[in-house]
Amino acid sequence: MRLTRSRFRLAVSLFATATVAATAALVGTVPAQAAAGCRVTYTVTNQWPGGFGASVDLTNLGDPLTGWRLTWSFSAGQVIDQLWNGTVTQSAGRVTVTNAGWNGTLGSGASTQFGFGASWNNAANPVPVDFALNGVPCTGRTTSPTEPPTTAPPTTTPPTTTPPTTAPPTTAPPTTVPPTTAPPASGALDQTSTVGRVKAVGSSAQYTWPGVYFEGRFRGTGVGIVLNDAQNDYAVQIDGATVATLVTPGRTTYWVRNLANAEHTVRLAKRTESPWAAGEFGGLVAASGGAILARPAPRSRQIEFIGDSWTAGYGNMSTTRDCNSNGGVTRNSNADVTFGALTAQSLNADYQLIAWSGLGMVRNYNGGGTDNFRTYYETDLQALWNSTTWQNPGTWKPQLVVVGLGINDFSTALNPGERWSTVDQLAADYRTAYLAFIDKLRSRYGPDTFIVLTYPDLSPTTALASSVQQIVQTRTSRGDTRIRSLYYDDNALGLDKLGCDWHPSRRDDQLLAGALTRFVNTLPLTW
Q: Could you tell me which residue ranges the CBM2 domain spans (predicted)?
């Protein structure tokens, strides 16, 4: 059989940090001869082939500012693609970042932070050394004036509210709902039901994991869906039928109109992966004469799907393995029709897709990177600069957890320089890590949750299959009676692997969902 190949999409945590600071008289935003100084900490948080993420901490060591402009120069061709918490312009290597509307005021000793995603040449990514605040180079000390200022410094005090703790989108967050719409009656998480890993930001919800969905109810002839997302694609469903696919909608209120004047359901589902960029859902707006109704009750059944590109739906909408000419992987991905989503829907269960293409249990695709899936499993916003541990609200108690990790660990040959000399050594580490991961799941969800470990055909190697089988045997011998394994037989199922880069197609996802659903129905689940 063919080797399964997963796309290399992983973050290499570099934690490369440089701190530089400034001292001199600032111009423009403070009076002449005012005390001045600043400190900048630049951190490369993640790096992968062709791209990287970075965060910048700016501290004002001088007199208060009512606006700021930070400049620096890239020396190796780096280009910023998107930035949050500010506005960016770039000419060749020269970068200028100005404050957003909500973080322009910096008191003495106050700090602000922004982050960005950028491209690089895969050869060198040096830290800039010429940071300047409002045109003044940085050294980290404060310069006092030689004579008293002739005018008083600004009296504006810093904001009394803390800036957002998650990365806003590439444009400043809206202070009102976009024009032509009435503001929602309440916040997005009050109006809709979701079990996804989301973070509340004001009245909106932010998220990164694939397949996150929101379900609501309304009465009337139409509904508006408030979004702020230039990164992801979405499926919009009314009364169970898909009525639109939104491709990187940006900041907008998307309207569904001309419906029968009755009660309806609405569902918004994130189709794509975005480990380094958060989507934002701002809630629902009723059409004139209508109303947003109480959100639907959550389902009693819950399933957590943990995995890699197979679970995420990498390129599953494509009908050709080479996606370079048909829109690329992202446009051809739809987490809402993956085998996990279809299985949950057939069982009337709520679900999470905790999946990331290219990552493995201990080894990523082709041996890339130092982080693996376990690094990010517990996060709320994956690799975003301010991602933290997801706080389970206490309502997420899956009766079933389906884990599919190992394709990236074993599908490519070991490279010189990797920490394993043989596949046997890799398999031993894989089993040890997997057993510890199951311990973590047991700690989170208790002894009654069923855990199913899945694995596909990876001929000619049998390392994945034998390792998964040994893990189940080890757990069972220790008294864990609610763990099983499921083998996805390519030939028996008739998978065509016509998704991008030899991944399961939409048809394959349907076949995998059928196999998994049949298997789940044999388990003595009490749900």
A: 31-141
